[in-house]
Design goal:
The chain has 260 residues and is mostly beta strands. The chain folds into two domains: 112 residues, Leucine-rich repeat, LRR (right-handed beta-alpha superhelix) (Alpha-Beta Horseshoe), CATH 3.80.10.10; 126 residues, Alpha-Beta Horseshoe (Leucine-rich repeat, LRR (right-handed beta-alpha superhelix)). 0% of the residues lie in helices and 14% in strands.
């Protein structure tokens, strides 16, 4: 099995190391690079995270597109700001409590069923948990610094009511989640970008409080009428392709860019 030792690297003082697409299966040898701040191991065959105990200076770790089944052995990465575990085989969010400085976390395209063990990530700015098997959004209440959230592709979301405390959210992706309405936006007064395509929304409503909204993507829903948008004074782009909207003058009265 190919390891990092097999790459015959000799400069262990580097601060940035890109080992993407190297066919690595075991992380043996990474422990020698104690000065690393940025490490990319994307697109390899790694199944287990190991050897990071001495890499305490790491700020960015990219382990996307591997075969990892568990996020583990990360406790020493106390300065880590970005962790990318997209496109793996992880079934549970865990072992993140020591990562107090984490700002960007990516779990897209895994096998996660529960949104859990994130209560201590109070400084997180960006969270991507799209394309998993999550049905309930919970445990994000303490993330007062959360600005960007992507939960797209979790097709059985039962409610977004628990987002009501994330009042600093600016960017929200909830595509293909079987969302029925926009009620969850009532308290999200900081939202600027909303992407909500391929859902089951049939009416544009409950947007009175989101006056900062700049772009809204509602493609491929069940909307038949454009309305209730007068108070969206900052809206520049509205995407409605794939909805059963008629071409009446009533639907053309707005002066921002509507894409049918």
């Amino acid at each position: 099995m190919k390891t990092i030792n097999d790459l015959n690297l000799t400069d262990y003082s580097v601060r940035e190391l890109d080992l993407a697409f190297q066919g690595i299966e075991l992380m043996d040898g990474i422990e020698k690079f104690e000065q690393l701040e940025i490490l990319c191991l994307e697109e390899n065959g790694i199944k287990k995270i190991t050897g990071l105990e001495n890499l305490t200076k790491l700020r960015i770790l990219n382990l996307s597109s591997n075969q990892i089944t568990k996020n583990e052995n990360l406790d020493s990465l106390i300065h880590l700001e970005k962790l990318d575990l997209r496109h793996n085989r992880i079934s549970k969010i865990e072992n993140l409590d020591n990562l107090k400085k984490l700002k960007n976390l990516f779990f897209e395209y895994n096998n996660i069923e529960n949104l859990e063990n994130l209560e201590n990530q109070i400084y997180l700015n960006h969270l991507n948990i799209g394309k998993n098997k999550i049905s309930k959004i919970k445990g994000l209440e303490k993330m007062k610094n959360l600005q960007s959230l992507d939960i797209s592709g979790n097709r059985n979301i039962d409610s977004l009511e628990n987002l009501k405390d994330n009042i600093d959210l600016e960017i929200l992706h909830i595509n293909s989640c079987n969302i029925q309405n926009l009620d969850f936006l009532v308290n999200l007064t900081s939202i600027e970008f909303l992407s909500c395509f391929k859902n089951c929304i049939n009416k544009i409503e409950n947007l009175e409080s989101v006056s900062n909204l700049y772009s809204m993507n509602l493609k491929n829903n069940n909307i038949s009428k454009v309305g209730n948008l007068e108070h969206l004074v900052n809206l520049e782009y509205l995407y409605l392709e794939g909805n059963p909207i008629d071409n009446s003058e009533e639907n053309k009265k707005y002066d921002f860019n509507i894409h049918y």
